[in-house]
Amino acid sequence: MKTLIDRRKRWAIVLAGGEGVRLRPLTRIISGDDRPKQFCRLYGGVTLLEQARRRAQQSIRPEQILFSLTRAHEDFYLPELMDCPSQRVVQPRNRGTAAAILSSLLVIAHKDQNATVAVFPSDHHYSEESAIVEALERAFDLSRRERDSVILLGAQPHNAEVDYGWIQVGSQVQGSPDSFRIQGFHEKPAPLVARFLFDQGSLWNTFVMVGKVFAFLEMICSAMPGLLKIFQNFPAVQAPGEEFRIADALYTAIPSIDFSGQVLSTEIQRLLVHRLGPVTWSDLGDCDRALAALSGAGMQPEWARTWRAVKPPTSVPRPAAVAALG
User: Fold this and answer.
1) Are 259 and 219 in contact (CB under 8 A)?
2) In this structure, what are the phi and psi dihedrals at residue 154, rounded to the nearest 5 degrees?
3) CB of 105 within 8 A of CB of 117?
4) How far is CA 22 from CA 40, 143, 230, in A?
5) CA dihedral 58, 62, 68, 69 (to 10 degrees)
6) Which residues of the chain have pLDDT under 50?
7) Across-strand partners of 273?
8) Which of 14, 102, 273, 312 stands the most exposed, by the fewest C-beta atoms within 10 Å?
9) DSSP assignments along 275-288, one per residue
């Protein structure tokens, strides 16, 4: 019975409002237009957004998954999310990951102040979906005991990658052999710092997070005093049975805010990290990284051959950007 009650308190935010600019040369080949990568059928025959939705549904009830979107992408998200209008939280424009997360957290807090929330990027690749599902269950369990903390999922790195966020691990959490306190958070470090972190056994930040809704809100308030008040002055508007729409005036009043750089990096005392099991993970951040991730998984979609034929001659494959674990 307790497990069933816990699941009813679980909510998810799927972040799907980004522009995907760095991957655009590739997504143009795949889709024939300038749609962001989350709306592109990169592999598996479905879009990255649909894959993220299915990933979230492994742990969270389908009706308790919110999708953070951007109004300019309406033509792309409507066909995929036509069945769940009241779960769409639509921003007037992209103002960074902090605004996307906070606006959706406030919708959840209004519905359930005791909610536990999982945040999912919509543009990542995992070679084994079962590994992320298992890690999420561990994170939900840890959140019940560490109610004031936000738990990040960390992937074991394969090299000293400078384009990822790194989590410097500290002491082990009692009773959780793969969960740790956090000593430091480093977003896109310099090469020498990345090498130090790699040699030290630090983890890559997958940006998948789990925590009580109030733990997220308290962390944001601590990192950026006054931001919550601004959002509360412009609550999201929803007509019955329709999507939530965020006021233009709110996004005019705030700058673009990066959640990793401006919240996580300053609030490490509130963070824990749970280490993913053996899995290949990539954020599909650029064209060669996306190709390397799929090649490493033994996938050869038709677009991969086209890309190799037309890609710029200065483009060099970057298999080191993928975390190949075992």
Assistant:
1) no
2) -115, 140
3) yes
4) 14, 34, 31
5) 110
6) 1, 314-326
7) 152, 180
8) 312
9) E--S--EE---SHH
Instruction: Round to whole Å and give the CA distance between 244 and 237.
Output: 5
Residues 186-243 have pLDDT tens digits of 888 999 999 999 999 999 999 999 999 999 999 999 999 999 999 999 989 988 889 9
* Per-residue tokens: 98: 């902090």
> Which of 266, 269, 147 lies closest to 210 in space, CA to CA?
147
pLDDT at 295: 73
Question: Which pair of tokens denotes residue 87?
Answer: 């779960």
Is the CB of residue 186 less than 8 Å from the CB of residue 166? Answer: yes
Beta bridge partners of 70: 91
Residue type, 234: F
Give residues with Cβ within 8 angstroms of 154, minimum separation 6: 167, 169, 203, 204, 205, 206, 273, 274, 275, 276
As given in the structure block, the two tokens for residue 184 are 């430091």
The pTM assigned to this predicted structure is 0.91
The CATH fold assigned to 2-321 is: Spore Coat Polysaccharide Biosynthesis Protein SpsA; Chain A (3.90.550)
Cβ count within 10 A of residue 114: 9
Other beta carbons within 10 Å of 99: 26
- Residues facing residue 123 across a β-bridge: none
Burial class (CB within 10 angstroms; exposed 0-12, middle 13-18, buried 19+) of 10: buried
pLDDT for 293: 77
Tell me the one-letter amino acid at 124.
H
Q: Is 134 helix (H, G, I), strand (E, B) or coil?
A: helix
Instruction: Supply 65's token pair.
Output: 């998954």
